[in-house]
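Aim 2 progress update. The chain analyzed this quarter is reproduced below.
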Amino acid sequence: MTHSIHPQTRRGRGPARRIGRSLALVLPVVLVLSGTLAVASVNWSGTPQSPVLTAADTSAASASSRTAARAPQDVLRDQLLMELQKKDPGAALTQLQQAVNDRPSLAEHCASIARSLGKAAVRVYGPTKAQSYARPVCDTSFASGVVAANG
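Predicted structure tokens:
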């Protein structure tokens, strides 16, 4: 009986072991790359870019992004100009004063908004009628807007 000094060390070195080692080296690289690509392909901006969205979804998203992208004083100006068209300049001036009282950060924009209202009032009501709505909201900016639109 002959015994080998070295036990069977060749066992387990077949093709299966080589494949296992290759997978052990390649699999983590594949997982990291696929995870990186998955994260990179996500739309992190919040604006929808999928062509599958319905028209209502895209119009609502674009309207909200337009409002979000606009400054608060611009949104207020547009609201007050619509109020001037619906009611009268007096109602718009009252709302302007309330907005400035509620949000003091709008005070620095009050004069330019009031001038815009004065100019719009002249276009809608004419200079004489527009001037009759003048009052000391944001100093005399409404009246100066009326004068600027008239002259």
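Residues 52-58 have pLDDT under 50 and may be disordered. Helices lie at 15-41, 55-69, 72-86, 89-102, 107-125, 127-132, 141-150. These observations will guide the mutagenesis experiments scheduled for the next reporting period.
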